[in-house]
Amino acid sequence: MAIEILWLGSLLRDLPVEVWRSCLAAACQRHPGAGSLVVNGNLAVRDGPLAERCLATLFENGVDVVTLGDQAVARVSSRRALERWPRLIRPLNLPPAAPGQGAFALKEYGSGEGVWIVSLMTGSERFPVDDPFDALEAFGRAHRPTAVLVDISGPDLEVRKALAWRAAEYPWPVHVLGSGLGVATDDLGLADGRLTLTDVGIVGEEHLIGGLPPAQWWTLRRHLPTPPPASPGAGYLRVDGVHLILEPNGRVAAATPLRLKVPGWGT
């Protein structure tokens, strides 16, 4: 029997509970058969004091797994949260001493150890990591999964594409879904039941830059005492994602992009 997974884009900021529920309801109405929900919370959880509240909102309202990237794991509060929430995962290819886990067994399924969610990072000069190719290969050898769904973040888009190419020869299907660009890409590929998508997209206000209102981003990056005029209210939230149907052998039978507009606060 096939299983359905709804994989949402990067959550750009901590959303009020009622707004998150509206986003989730709209997504689930489009795909009511989805039994599991995954979201990238890197930008939303980076605000230290709000991290626990944000995660509680997500896990208590339908999310099964939250992945993190560099902006969140650099915070002390996020490191504490990783020790508390087993369904919160950070990049697997962080140094061995990093807190938390880099993978989570989503379901027991098929002939292998089940469907796993794995987080990886491409790395950068500011945030070096272990080799993502080696980390993924070692994980597969250790667990012999039915399938691996990879959330890969980081600025190097070539590494994202190369990871999908390199993993195509693994005996266990690997599905590579990028995150963190701030916009959904239209390069979804499905070959021999293996999915590749450079970036899933976002959940949040479309006009945000790196999860921040443009005026705040401008002031922080340009160090100007007076920001430009504030942007208008959200009006609506963009909810990007992809709906996956996995066969018992771990291959993707179908993948459908999700592109929704949901009324936000201030409307």
From TrEMBL:
It holds the Pfam family YmdB. SUPFAM superfamilies: Metallo-dependent phosphatases (SSF56300). GO terms for molecular function: 2',3'-cyclic-nucleotide 3'-phosphodiesterase activity. This is Ser/Thr protein phosphatase family protein.
